[in-house]
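Whiteboard transcription, Tuesday session. T.W. wrote the structure tokens on the left side:
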């Protein structure tokens, strides 16, 4: 293989090229936990990091152990419609609304709300605001 080098082209050895290929095929994050993914197991949204290794796309869940990672390969999709549906399971991180901003929401606003199934099982789902209850906060 020929590579461009300062002062002209030079021939690289096959061994050196294979070593370079091995180094560049490592799993490299596309972005560091800056994406949300709607998981197939429960349709909840999770903060994730997306990794590529060969033809495998791995979804790593923030604050979960590696055994919870999901790996997807081209053979997992039967047609382009399934690929398109998969694409819509990703989105940028949702903006967190602070307590003092809740009163600014109006009925019909789309939000990502949490539901606690247990003290260690909180999941996030898309929801529409039914109404906003304005109350005074009492410092304790």
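and on the right, the sequence the group agreed on:
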């Amino acid at each position: 293989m020929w590579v461009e080098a300062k002062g002209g082209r030079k021939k690289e050895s096959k061994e050196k090229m294979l070593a370079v290929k091995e180094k560049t095929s490592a799993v490299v994050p596309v972005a560091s936990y800056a994406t949300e993914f709607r998981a197939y197991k429960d349709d909840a949204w999770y903060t994730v990091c997306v990794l590529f290794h060969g033809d495998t796309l791995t979804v790593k869940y923030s604050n979960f152990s590696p055994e919870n990672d999901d790996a997807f390969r081209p053979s997992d999709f039967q047609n382009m419609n399934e690929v398109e549906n998969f694409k819509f399971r990703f989105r940028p991180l949702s903006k967190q609304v602070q307590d003092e901003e809740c009163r600014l929401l109006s009925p019909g606003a789309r939000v990502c709300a949490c539901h606690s199934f247990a003290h260690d099982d909180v999941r996030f789902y898309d929801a529409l605001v039914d109404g906003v209850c304005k109350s005074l906060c009492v410092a304790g």
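Someone added at the bottom: The chain has two helices and ten strands.
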